[in-house]
Write a structure and sequence with these properties.
Layout: H1 2-8, H2 17-27, H3 34-49, H4 53-56, H5 59-78, H6 97-111, H7 113-121, H8 125-136
Helix pairs in contact: 1-2, 1-3, 3-6, 5-6, 5-7, 5-8, 6-7
């Protein structure tokens, strides 16, 4: 259901798209359905990579985006199946999306370092570590 709303994010000219993006970010991270969580984070990476106006036009959302990506990376790094290209991981990211999340965090940090710093301050230790690791990664 959450992903159906995310799919509406791509509807051209959706009048309430900004509100929908805000709601969607508010329900992340998804913890009940790993496949839906992975699809949602792929969409989030898409939005960041394209510098979507619904995200970048509302600077207060960038801290939430950074926090959700850091949480997903921490979850991915703690998953025992995260490195397997053949077995879907029991985490919010898959092997293809994890590097995109790292690049997205680096891009967010370049675009709005204050948003990333704000996100960092509100994260739990595993997510803080994942965020620091992502920002230090050579991509």
């Amino acid at each position: 259901a959450v992903l159906a709303c995310a799919d509406a994010l791509y509807a051209p000219g959706a009048a309430e798209r900004g509100d929908l993006v805000g709601w969607w970010l508010g329900v992340l991270p998804l913890r009940e359905d790993d496949e839906e969580a992975r699809r949602a984070h792929r969409k989030l990476a898409d939005l960041v990579e394209t510098r979507d106006a619904a995200l970048f036009g509302a600077p207060d959302r960038l801290a939430t985006v950074a926090a959700r990506l850091a949480d997903a990376l921490a979850d991915y790094e703690s998953s025992p199946d995260s490195a397997s290209p053949t077995k879907p991981p029991a985490s919010q990211l898959d092997v293809a999306t994890a590097p995109r999340a790292v690049r997205a965090l680096k891009g967010l940090n370049e675009a709005s370092p204050q948003a990333v710093q704000s996100a960092y301050a509100g994260l739990e230790k595993p997510s803080q570590d994942a965020l620091q690791k992502a920002l230090a990664a050579a991509v």
